[in-house]
Design goal:
The chain is an alpha+beta fold and 127 residues long. The chain is 17% helix and 46% strand.
């Protein structure tokens, strides 16, 4: 589903803009760290944040990422949060911190509330 021509946007440590739906249908978009395993996108958040409440109520999401070297080149993925995995040790957060070259001294303060959003792509568009 992801075109080979745009796979680099998923494998480079770029920021994705993840859109979720708030109650009443108003979108919420935030820049997010992510990984791609060839099948699913994975993001981290906490159970105390609006993003988690949004996807719990409405699992449809969209994300976009543009190439900082070629700003008109982008990839948009629309899909569903297939599952939400608990990550109370913030293990996945640590993986993302390393991917994005953030030095950390132990887990973040909100580790106990950490979860992983696992997104299955349903559709893509790209330029």
């Amino acid at each position: 589903m992801i075109p080979d021509s745009h796979l680099d946007l998923l494998t480079r440590p770029l920021f994705a803009h993840l859109a979720t739906l708030r109650p009443g249908g108003m979108p919420q978009v935030n820049p997010m760290w992510f990984t791609w395993d060839g099948t699913h996108l994975r993001f981290t958040t906490t159970t105390t944040r609006r993003k988690h409440r949004n996807v719990t109520a409405e699992p449809r999401v969209a994300m976009s990422i543009n190439d900082p070297d070629e700003p008109y080149r982008y990839l948009e993925i629309r899909g569903q949060v297939e599952r939400i995995d608990a990550d109370p040790g913030a293990t996945f957060f640590g993986e993302l911190a390393r991917r994005y070259a953030l030095a950390m001294d132990g887990p973040p303060g909100d580790a106990a509330d950490r979860v992983v959003l696992v997104v299955r792509p349903d559709a893509v568009s790209y330029q």
